[in-house]
Specification:
alpha/beta, 2 domains, five-stranded parallel beta sheet
């Protein structure tokens, strides 16, 4: 008899590849079918800045009896840690999350770095620069003008299927992204990438991820400076490639054993 699907929570209020990516990489790491669950019913929280959703349920006296697992999850900003004693933390996105929650762990990674392995055959690299925008920036007139003026830029729509978005990122020689998971998927494929200004969107999650893989993260590139930056973009190997490889190993090593295929429940 086949095991029941693993109940995973991911944010699904808007079409966005980075959140749905959680289903793909969790299925790869667990070897199980994965279904979306509401936070209260979830067995696992993985990709995304979604710790606040775990807090809203397990920080209350009316919390469910089961203990969900946190596997590589992050946060948008500081949270009260009243829920931490009622969940099992396998790993967090980065050391900033751990510091703010008071969690003693040295296991950090965003599960999105498993994308290349989870999707299998790698796309052929092409000589183009991908532009990936956070969903909050879609439709910005400055971006429309930029794309018209810079034919070297290849716009990658985050509202496409996650498989399509990730493979388009993997084909690029360089990626410019205001989406955190645009950067993370590029790291997964070994594609050099540049952080683009997320504007009104919080920056903590970017620094949290970067610190977890030892990535230098200077101030983001401003939208108005993209055109001038294009000629100097790196196209070689990632200087922190070994740290990304180690993060991939940690994600598989520290995935909760009781949630893997074949485990006795």
């Amino acid at each position: 008899m086949a095991a029941a699907p693993l109940k995973l929570y991911w944010w699904d209020a808007k079409p966005n590849f980075g959140d749905v990516l959680s289903r793909i990489v969790t299925g790869y790491a667990s070897g199980r079918a994965v279904v979306h669950a509401q936070p209260r019913d979830a067995e696992l929280f993985a990709v995304g800045s979604i710790l606040q959703f775990a807090k809203r349920v397990w920080g209350k006296d009316t919390r469910p009896a089961h203990r969900p697992v946190i596997w590589g999850t992050g946060m948008m900003g500081a949270l009260r840690n009243d829920f931490v004693a009622h969940v099992d933390i396998a790993m967090l996105r980065g050391p900033i999350s751990a510091a703010l929650l008071g969690v003693k762990t040295e296991s950090f990674a965003d599960p999105g770095v498993l994308t290349a392995e989870a999707l299998g055959e790698r796309p052929v690299r092409e000589d183009k620069v991908g532009l990936v925008l956070h969903h909050a920036q879609l439709g910005d007139p400055r971006v429309t003008a930029l794309l018209q003026a810079q034919p070297a830029l290849h716009y990658i729509d985050v509202q496409q299927s996650p498989e399509q978005v990730c493979r388009e990122i993997g084909r690029c020689a360089h990626v410019i992204s205001s989406s955190l998971h645009g950067l993370i998927v590029a790291d997964s494929y070994g594609v050099p990438n540049t952080w683009l200004d997320p504007m009104q969107h919080g920056r903590l999650k970017y620094y949290d991820y970067a610190a977890g893989v030892g990535r230098v993260m200077p101030l983001p590139l401003r939208h108005e400076d993209i055109a001038a930056a294009l000629p100097g973009l790196a196209t070689g190997d990632l200087p922190y490639a070994s740290a990304v490889a180690e993060a991939k190993e940690r994600l598989i090593r520290d995935f909760p054993a009781h949630l893997k295929a074949g485990a006795t429940h």
